[in-house]
UniProtKB/TrEMBL annotation:
It comes from the Bacteria. Residues 83-202 form the GST C-terminal domain. PANTHER family: GLUTATHIONE S-TRANSFERASE OMEGA, PTHR43968. InterPro entries: Glutathione-S-Trfase_C-like (IPR010987), Glutathione-S-Trfase_C_sf (IPR036282), Glutathione_S-Trfase_N (IPR004045), GST_C (IPR004046), GST_Omega/HSP26 (IPR050983), Thioredoxin-like_sf (IPR036249). This is Glutathione S-transferase. One of its GO terms (cellular component) is cytoplasm. Residues 1-78 form the GST N-terminal domain. Transmembrane segments: none annotated. PROSITE patterns: GST_CTER, GST_NTER. It holds the Pfam family GST_N_2. Keywords: Transferase.
Amino acid sequence: MKLIGSYTSPFVRKISVMLLEKGITFEFINEQPYNAINGVAHYNPLGKVPALITDEGEVWFDSPIIAQYIELLGIAPALLPTEPVAALKIRQLEALADGIMDAALFSVRELARPVEQQSQSELLRQREKVSQGLDTLERYLQEGTLSVETLNLATIAIACAIGYLNFRHVSPGWCVNRPLLVKLVENLFQRESFARTEPPKA
């Protein structure tokens, strides 16, 4: 199995963590989706990472689809409940975490543009998305919808999203008044799967 992706992508990290937690052997192929010569488009016509190539040569792309494929392999530990509605609720929390990743990625790309070309209103809009998403996740933890001790697809996605916020210094005060989110990611960041997929410092 081959995983096509970038070491800095939180979406790729989500899939890498899943594969490591399940003990699935895979080869990582580092491709930068924003390079002028984009090798990712060979696997995903949209030129986005991650993409997964199975041992049979089948290609899957888009991280929620890849995550679903990995779960369908039936390899422990299960990261989604077997009951369909319960699984859908976890997928919705994954989608919320993915939305935080999207907003953070947009902010990083916007800030990379010349200052005179940056849209401050759009940057504010993306920061609000991140803040509202994190507030909602903290509330779910308070209500017991999520647990700081749980490893599943949603908590993996949440930790990858916050890891990216830390890595790119997006929303540096995210931890203020969100103690349960802090505890959740502290627990997950201690796992070997997260230690091995930490983005490079340089």
